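Could you please consider the sequence and fold appended to this message?
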Amino acid sequence: MSSTTLFVKWMIPVAIVWGLSYPLTKLVSEYSSPMIISVARVAVGFIFFYSLSRSLSIGVKQFINGLLNFVGLLTFLNLGVYFSRNPGLVAVMIYTQPLFILVIEYILGTRIKTKGTIGIILGVIGITAAAFVSFDLGLLFGLLGGLVWAIGTVYYRRNLLKEDIVRLNASMALTSLPILLVLTPIDFHFTFTLTAISLIIILALIAQVGGFFFWFNAVKYLGSIKAGTGSLLVPVMAYVLSYAFFRTIPTPIEIIGSAITLIGVYLTMTS
């Protein structure tokens, strides 16, 4: 099977599923507080991953990894979507993760190629331009999500790279759940209706089960670099689907800034 066929088979569904999760999260947040959404996603994720692995990988490093990649990322992502008018722009902020990874690796002593440096500069310019006319608390949370995701990714690469990814995700979900449950009083609200419950379950199934199913296969068949580069379609799809859901039209500066940011991210990922 050709690489193009594999890309269409695995990465296009990733872009659609995870792109859909942003406006869907915004819709669900009308019925539920961000922390309850996080709990639901992680709980469904645990059921999915544990059903595949039937075992766990427990330890301090695994716990820290879950704290960063599950608790931190999901909390900031959901808060970002909750407080922002445009879920698509929050997706761009979340996907600044590779920019932060390069900066962190540089601080830790890794050499950065010229292409990566240019990518970081473009990323900063793009973020500044996009946020200049529409900065809000949601975008700040989105950026913090990108930063925490980057720290978690670097931590995983340096400490847990040899771990079975399915067992690791099951363990992260299990150890993250009690912490997320403790945080549920933050801005607590939940409209107990069939619509609200259905939307949360659909979001959890789409984002955690469907998203990770396609993502793991994309990484397996395409490799991490091609899959990572292809994931830049996610914020693009988030923009498109946010318009479909809410008729949210980004301003010209937001579009230009987001495009510059994604070009910068692409350069860092391929440097």
